[in-house]
Amino acid sequence: MAHPDEERELVLDLHGVSVPRVVHAPGLDESARHNRIGAGAGVHLQIGRQGSLDSLSWQSFAPVRPTGDEVEIEVVATGLNFRDVMWALGLLPEEALEDGFAGATLGMECSGIVRRTGPDVTRFVPGDSVITFAPACFATHVRVAEKAVAPVPSTVDIEAAATIPVTFLTAYYALVELARLEEGETILIHGGAGGVGLAALQIAIWRGARVIATAGSPEKRRLLTMLGAEHVLDSRSLVFQDEVMAISGGKGVDVVLNSLFGEAMERSIATLRPFGRFVELGKRDYYANSRIGLRPFRQNLSYFGVDADQLLTHRPALAARLFRELVERFEDGVFSALPYRAFAANRVTTPSG
């Protein structure tokens, strides 16, 4: 570093000293020529090496004409889910992708415009604005079965509509179809400021339930209070169990929508009153094959595990029905799209910046 030269930027590491230089890179030129987008072509996001976001790149592909009941959609906006981040970082177990609708791809929900339809499609025509579940939604075009598509509600703009499919279908399936949340009941929503949590808050209020929510920061707790939660607790403290019991007069809650793990999950089960329903959204305890005691379940408790990705694969008719019901609720003005931030495709590796 004391060498008498004109260098002002140096990197010193175990391999020596490096200085910045602009040089010709024939390999990159060849890659650019190979991946040039031609007429009628599209691009989709690919990851070269899991665990390295720097290996993400947009690759060209030729869209295939839809057949049967398939719909081709030109993507306007794609929802980024926690699953996508975990998979790209190599932190998602392979079993998490088994039997899933999206499979080992990036992106499982989007909004867009119908461009072509197969001969058996009856509900959509080219030009329709739609939302959908589909594999590999980080793309210019997706092709998917008609049953996984719904019209963009007239109350929501097309970009915001990309926040609807995964979060709202997960919460709606969990609370309406499984837990059968009823008016006057009390629900504990963990992670209330997350996407599914915010959707669940809207659904619970619509059902006439009292909401106790948890969140990890004062800002998030203030947001949940503003949006209608009656009580908002700290999700990072195990004291929430005692607080829930105090709020409920020692009776407990009717439904828990859980995303916590370990001891916090067990304490959440302990907050249920007789005939309570525990709905598990988290996956960590599944993959760890965690054990829970069965003693609490002697009080007619129910346990549900929820994975919307598998719902679309194994119960497509049910998923389609719930999806239609959701859109109707949006049309009626009951639900609203979630807060979001939009990022250009060229910022795919830095969406938090």
Q: Your description of this structure?
A:
With 353 residues, the protein is of the alpha/beta class. Helix content is 27%, strand content 23%. The protein is built from ten helices and 15 strands. The chain has helices spanning 26-34, 82-88, 165-178, 195-206, 218-227, 240-247, 263-269, 284-287, 308-314, 316-331, and strands at residues 11-13, 16-18, 42-47, 56-61, 70-78, 109-117, 129-133, 141-145, 149-151, 186-189, 210-215, 231-234, 253-258, 272-280, 302-305. The strands form four sheets. The chain has a six-stranded parallel beta sheet, with helices on both faces. Strands 8-5-6-7-9 form a five-stranded antiparallel beta sheet, with helices on one face. Strand 13 (253-258), helix 7 and strand 14 (272-280) form a beta-alpha-beta unit. Helix 9 crosses helix 10. The two termini are 33 Å apart. The model is unreliable at 27-35 (pLDDT under 50). One of its GO terms (molecular function) is oxidoreductase activity. This is Phthiocerol synthesis polyketide synthase type I PpsC. Keywords: Acyltransferase, Phosphopantetheine, Phosphoprotein, Transferase.
